[in-house]
Design goal:
The protein is an alpha/beta fold. 31% of the residues lie in helices and 22% in strands. Strands 1, 2, 3, 4, 13, 14, 15 and 16 form an 8-stranded mixed β-sheet that branches. Strands 6-7-9-10-12-11 form a 6-stranded mixed β-sheet. It has a two-stranded antiparallel sheet with strand order 5-8. A hairpin with a 5-residue loop joins strand 17 and strand 18. Helix 1 runs antiparallel to helix 2. The relative contact order is 0.11.
Length: 415
């Protein structure tokens, strides 16, 4: 709600900036027109039979410039007509100039509303879950995207022979709305922890909260669907898929509801190629990799390049639960894993990715470093922030991160 109110205020300010000059010019034109009308009325003589041409201030002269009554040329003493062109120029409304505002996209890693997190939320609300600095970033972004690593439901049967299974009461979707989430990816290895009923409840819960979901659905078309959002005069598109599921029956190609998978990248590549024609900036969110491994697998590198070749502008990864390296491919950034964002009690290192798109300029990519203690995720202070940026530079290829978290491509990373 707070994010929507801020957006509404920005729209109101933009309309006022456009309308005020138009209103001032319109008023000026009316005053000028009124002045000419008054002048023309006072120019009419008392005696209508007087030998004076009284029509000069009221009627535009004929193209020939002659008096139609007697064929004689107009006298030099005739009063000139008002400069109609100048009046029209004053009255013409200028074309409104709408300056595009920068658009911010914000991406987080894995979100699990564990018992630790929910206890904080019950006691202190969203302030018990996230620091004010992070909340501001999440809420102020035009589009905020998270990885929803669990189903919202009180129904279903726990998946057998699975080490970790998650499920959260749907009433706690308020955590996501309080933090400003706009889109949630469900393409991961936990959304079916409690079966089809729980996943269906998740769809309903997110829809009821006004949060779009991607990467899963009641059928393949819905699971593979492009999610779009409008902002700053542009269309932003989002796709999600998983290369990690515990059993093949989770694949939406095999059962419904299900998850969009990308073990074979063919279908996701086709979805990217189709989506590129319908949006100005396309993000692909992929669940992949090895848990606790800070380096991407070879297949992650290969697939990321294929997704960008197909038309993706940004690739965001999840699943390893730790930060993985960053790289550029064909000037497009790839974040192999953002790690956990809201999870259990402790997160030593994580980062949200903020992308600012301003007209035709190159997107500005910024990392927001964070950690979690006692199940509360907070933006880092300067020294810890620098440690995380230095760490990411060490495990990445061809990138540098400045003191403000701004990411840049080094010469050695150009492909």
């Amino acid at each position: 709600m707070q994010k929507q109110q801020k957006k509404t205020l920005r729209r109101i300010r933009r309309v006022l900036v456009i309308l005020l000059p138009v209103l001032v010019l319109t008023l000026a034109a009316l005053l000028i027109a009124n002045r000419y009308l008054n002048r023309s009325q006072t120019a009419v003589p008392e005696d209508p039979s007087a030998d004076t041409d009284v029509s000069a201030d009221l009627i535009i002269p004929t193209p020939s410039g002659t008096d139609t009554d007697n064929g004689s040329e107009k006298s030099d003493t005739d009063s000139p007509p008002p400069d109609e062109a100048s009046v029209q120029e004053q009255q013409a409304e200028p074309e409104p100039v709408i300056e595009e505002e920068p658009v911010t996209l914000l991406f987080t890693g894995d979100v699990l509303l564990s018992d630790y997190v929910l206890n904080n939320y019950k006691n202190s609300g969203i302030d018990g879950v996230l620091s004010p600095e992070l909340l501001d970033e999440l809420r102020d972004a035009d589009i905020t995207v998270i990885n929803n690593e669990f189903p919202f439901s009180t129904r279903g049967t726990q998946a057998p022979d699975k080490q970790f299974t998650f499920r959260v009461d749907p009433k706690y979707v308020s955590v996501l709305t309080d933090m400003g989430a706009d889109i949630a990816t469900l393409a991961n290895n936990h959304v079916l922890d409690y079966g089809a009923d729980a996943l269906l409840d998740t769809f309903d819960t997110l829809e009821g909260a006004g949060i779009d979901y991607m990467g899963a659905g009641t059928n393949a078309s819905r699971a593979e669907a492009l999610i779009t959002r409008q902002a700053g005069g542009k269309t932003f598109g989002f796709l999600a898929a998983s290369r990690v599921i515990p059993v093949v029956s989770w694949d939406v190609q095999n059962a419904s509801p299900g998850v969009f998978t990308t073990y074979d990248p063919t279908r996701l590549i086709a979805a990217i190629e189709k989506a590129k024609d319908n949006c100005d900036y396309l993000t692909v969110f992929v669940h992949w990799g090895i848990e606790r491994d800070e380096h991407p697998q070879d297949y992650q590198v290969s697939m990321a390049q294929q997704y960008i070749d197909a038309g993706a502008d940004l690739v965001i990864g999840s699943h390893p639960h730790v930060l993985q390296g960053i790289t550029y491919y064909k000037e497009k950034p790839v974040f192999y894993s953002l790690g956990n964002f809201i999870f259990n009690q402790s997160i030593p290192k994580t980062a949200a990715v903020k992308v600012t798109i301003d007209g035709e300029k190159d997107p500005v990519v910024q990392l927001i470093a964070a950690t979690a203690e006692n199940a509360r995720t907070a933006a880092c202070e300067s020294s810890k922030k620098t440690d995380i940026y230095d760490y990411l530079e060490r495990i990445s290829t061809g990138i540098s991160i400045d003191d403000n978290g701004i990411l840049s491509q080094t010469a050695s990373s150009s492909d």
